[in-house]
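Chapter summary example: a protein plus magnesium ion.
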Amino acid sequence: MPHLLESRRLLKDFGGLNAVDHLDFHIDEGEIVSLIGPNGAGKTTFFNLITGFYPADDGKVLFDGHNLLGLSPYQITELGIARTFQTVRLFQEMTILENVMVGQHCRGRSGVLGAVFRPPRYRAEEARIRKKAEEQLAFFGSRLGGYRLDQMANSLSYANRRRLEIARAMGTEAKLILMDEPSAGMNPKETEEIASLIGKLRDERGFTILVIEHDMKVVKGVSDRVVAMDYGHKIAEGTYENVANDEHVIEAYLGRKATREDQDAS
Ligand SMILES: Nc1ncnc2c1ncn2[C@@H]1O[C@H](COP(=O)(O)OP(=O)(O)OP(=O)(O)O)[C@@H](O)[C@H]1O
Ligand SMILES: [Mg+2]
């Protein structure tokens, strides 16, 4: 079976710095894969290449039989890849329900302008989209549902804003969701909830999930497979245990100097 998403020798060169350096990567349908690596390793840049936010300098990205390079972010969303961002990006002045509805308008005929101006002929479609958005939000229980549906996004706590980003990504009917540090800035209980949410999104909703995550408890808890990056390269890949104990990974996190000091000390 072909991989759901695959990159081959993918390259992004920021003026001499290869942020993603000939990266071979794949994820299969139904997998949860964590992408780890120290700050500046190239993880977010990799997401930006997959989703068309940055043009690649070389290589290939294949998704579900399509070559993604050269497509716009909008076209890539339509093909079935959704993402959340490292820093929350919501429509702060729109309600929770509207934020999720906007995510779905790439699926409807009326487009984003139709969502804003609501001409009468789109009412039926809008009702359908609204119902779907309510269903997506119901997945988050009282965190985003009930009386909160019509509250402004900017009234939400930070953790709930991150949940809303995930709800919006679900709303695009994606096959693959890319999450960039979903637990960043969350307390331990909220982080645990995010880990179980990631599992539920795959088990109950059938999404394939690629998640960039710094919290090793989350990585350990959710991943079928872990891929570690440093300086734009893949430095290790395998089960959590294999990758967490890999000497290249330990060295990347501790830094060469610290590793040498450890060895000198022993
Ligand atoms: N738009 C850009 N222009 C120039 N350099 C960039 C740009 N975006 C990222 N970089 C550089 O590319 C490298 C990889 O950055 P990236 O944001 O992908 O890392 P990351 O692995 O997501 O790190 P973090 O864990 O801190 O989020 C860094 O050296 C960064 O400074
Ligand atoms: Mg990043």
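Key point: Residues 1-80+174-266 form a domain with the Rossmann fold fold (CATH 3.40.50.300).
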